[in-house]
């Protein structure tokens, strides 16, 4: 199957995290989510950022540590990238099975680059740039591009990690560089709550937060969204939608200023503002 996508269609970046991608059934569910989104809004081009399946990154790190006490950071990043590349391929295959012709890109094709030597698992590299050529070309020929989160390359072509939780940062940087109309981070909960909804049934959903409030959550130990990703979105005033896979479920919107009304009203206002 082949589909041709006009170069002037709006781009939406959707990140699907490892907490969603738990097993084979979860990949099928994620593929159906992307498929439904595509057919509901066929004029949009989707860039889907994926994390490694839940637990894979830790498993690969443990493997490295069994071999040597202090793994070379460059080699460790290369090993870790196996998880994200596996997720890209598996999700793309599920999309193909559902009748979509996706582009499955590797770290080098995704186009994010850092300065040579700017490496470190935490914090993230200081300067990350996007060369969007390969992504734009893929989106002209395909309605969906699936790309790995968590990684960029340096000027020498080596794979460099963007810090734990770095798939959130990948999505933000791609949305900024591609001038996406929306950036959605899909989590295992439909946005922010006043407490952990898995442990506290009385936790109240928060439909709208400012970037500063979300950073405070992160500093207080709520790792729902990577702090560096929130900061990057704040710098370019990019609204973030934090949601689950259920289309009918509530979501949270992160913006620079408080948004009155419902979350749906707020996201409409935020999209217009950008």
Structure description:
The longest helix has 25 residues, at 73-97. The chain has a single domain (11-273), classed as 3-Layer(aba) Sandwich (Carbamate kinase). Residues 1-6 and 262-274 have low confidence and may be disordered. Helix 6 (166-177) runs parallel beside helix 8. 39% of the residues lie in helices and 19% in strands. It is α/β, with parallel strands linked by helices.
What is shown here, in short?
The chain is α/β, with parallel strands linked by helices and 274 residues long. It has helices at residues 24-40, 56-67, 73-97, 107-110, 133-141, 166-177, 211-219, 227-235, 263-273, and strands at 11-16, 45-50, 102-104, 112-114, 128-130, 144-148, 151-154, 159-161, 182-186, 192-193, 205-206, 208-210, 240-243, 252-255. The chain has a single domain, classed as Carbamate kinase (3-Layer(aba) Sandwich), CATH 3.40.1160.10.
């Amino acid at each position: 199957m082949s589909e041709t996508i006009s170069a002037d269609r709006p781009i939406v970046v959707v990140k699907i995290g490892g907490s969603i991608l738990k097993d084979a059934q979860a990949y099928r569910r994620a593929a159906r989510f992307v498929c439904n989104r595509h057919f509901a809004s066929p004029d949009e081009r989707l860039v889907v950022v994926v994390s490694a399946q839940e637990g894979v990154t830790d498993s690969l790190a443990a493997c490295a540590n069994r071999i040597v006490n202090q793994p070379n950071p460059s080699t460790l990043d290369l090993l870790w990238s196996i998880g994200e590349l596996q997720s890209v391929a598996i999700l793309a295959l599920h999309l193909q099975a559902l009748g979509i012709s996706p582009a499955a890109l590797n770290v080098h094709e995704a186009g994010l680059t850092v300065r040579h030597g700017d490496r470190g698992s935490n914090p993230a590299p200081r300067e990350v740039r996007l060369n969007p050529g390969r992504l734009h070309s893929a989106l002209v020929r395909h309605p969906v591009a699936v790309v790995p989160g968590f990684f960029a390359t340096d000027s020498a072509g080596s794979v460099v990690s963007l810090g734990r939780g770095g798939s959130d940062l990948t999505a933000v940087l791609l949305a900024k560089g591609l001038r996406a109309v929306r950036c959605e981070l899909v989590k295992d909960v439909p946005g922010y709550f006043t407490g952990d909804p898995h442990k506290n049934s009385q936790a109240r959903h928060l439909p709208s937060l400012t970037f500063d409030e979300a950073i405070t959550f992160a500093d207080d130990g709520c790792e729902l969204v990577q702090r560096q990703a929130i900061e990057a979105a704040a710098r370019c005033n990019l609204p973030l939608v934090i949601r689950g896979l259920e289309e009918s479920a509530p979501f949270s919107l992160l913006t620079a200023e408080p948004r009155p009304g419902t979350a749906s009203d707020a996201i409409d206002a935020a999209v217009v503002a950008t």
